[in-house]
Amino acid sequence: MPYEARQPSCYVHEMVPNHSRQLALKNERMDECYFDNNLNPFCSFAEGFFYERKIYMISLKAVSKKFNTKQGQIVAVDGVNLDIKKGEIFGIIGYSGAGKSTLIRLLNGLEKPTGGKIIVNGQEITSISEAKLRQVRQKVSMIFQHFNLLWSRTVAENIAFPLEIAGVPKDKRADRVNELIELVGLEGRGDYYPSQLSGGQKQRVGIARALANRPEVLLCDEATSALDPETTDSILDLLISINEKLGLTIVLITHEMQVIQKICNRVAVMEAGHVVEEGDVLEVFQNPKQPITKRFVSQVSEKGQAEQTIQRLVELYPNGKLIKLVFVGEQTEQPILSKLIKQFDLEVNIVQGNISHTKSGAFGTLILQLEGNSSAIEDAIHFIHEQKVLTEVISND
Ligand SMILES: Nc1ncnc2c1ncn2[C@@H]1O[C@H](COP(=O)(O)OP(=O)(O)OP(=O)(O)O)[C@@H](O)[C@H]1O
Fold this sequence. Notes:
Shape: elongated
Oligomer: single chain
Helix content: 25-40%
Number of strands: 19
Strand order of the largest sheet: 11-12-13-8-14-15
Structural class: alpha+beta
Family: Belongs to the ABC transporter superfamily.
Number of domains: 3
Largest sheet: 6 strands, mixed
Bound molecules: adenosine-5'-triphosphate
CATH topology of the largest domain: Rossmann fold
Protein name: D-methionine transport system ATP-binding protein
Keywords: Amino-acid transport, ATP-binding, Cell membrane, Membrane, Nucleotide-binding, Translocase, Transport
Strand content: 25-35%
Organism: Psychrobacillus insolitus
GO molecular function: ATP binding; ATP hydrolysis activity
Distance between the termini: 52 Å
CATH superfamily of the largest domain: P-loop containing nucleotide triphosphate hydrolases
């Protein structure tokens, strides 16, 4: 249902009637309609409730894309439903072959779906003419992993290119190019050729060029995958600032959870052509549901990495008991291990350990495998407790 019920009292004082939009709503059989001061979202009064119409910049309804190849049919995108809000940064993550590139190319009409509907800024783009599609594309621009710059043109000429195509007069082009060069932090580089720029600078040119015709949506196709981590960070910062300054909706595809973590409001996880999980980034990080999402989240969370390591150790050391000791400060200097071996009739194997030194002291963990009779193991754990070392049993045989 496209409407969300609200208690009547919550919006009344913020709304002004808007007659032109009332006409638009007549078809939707609403009794009355009101708008907030920004005319967005608009609401209507019907059956005693206010309904807030959710405004989406992009909606995908049961979208599929199949390719017929010599080897048979490939279903690259399979029945995807997605709603991307105006002004948000939306990330689509998946491993290679999941269907991300195909999906993003569907959003600006570079690919035509074999099933379903795609609505961009209120316009259904799946069945419109090529001429109309070209207009939509001016409002939905794209940046690429390998920048796709014109190598024989300078930075300024690259940025001016979409303006030339759109028929913007020369003097206006020059002003807009200067504005864009400043926006992306390339002052003084206007006369350089792409070959004279670093990877990060090339992507800045790509971003400036994509923004030239004031798009409403920026699609980013693995835009930072060819960059080193530091440059990636600076390009992501630039995307955040553009999103905030211009209110631009950004849709990006990536296979790196760091990118999602750093800049996205919401994320969809793709696997084998399907969106298998979707939600606010924080929620997905805190409570990933699907195995593939858990794997992506573990790329970036220490907890996730530790869980993965422990899982591996449990498989590698199935006998006895695996215990984890956590040392903090002075405990790191105690000879616990030698006492343990001397006092108890046990096989003690060090499975993994690390100590990190920080300005405020040392801390570390040690994972041990204890093999022997069960009462000796219990006594040993009790002994470690007495030394005030935090102990956790992570597996029993
Ligand atoms: N033009 C095409 N013709 C035939 N098959 C295609 C075409 N484009 C994509 N595919 C196939 O569709 C599937 C999804 O590909 P897609 O490139 O969308 O995935 P991806 O998640 O972007 O992966 P990658 O990051 O490796 O590009 C793959 O099996 C791919 O081989």
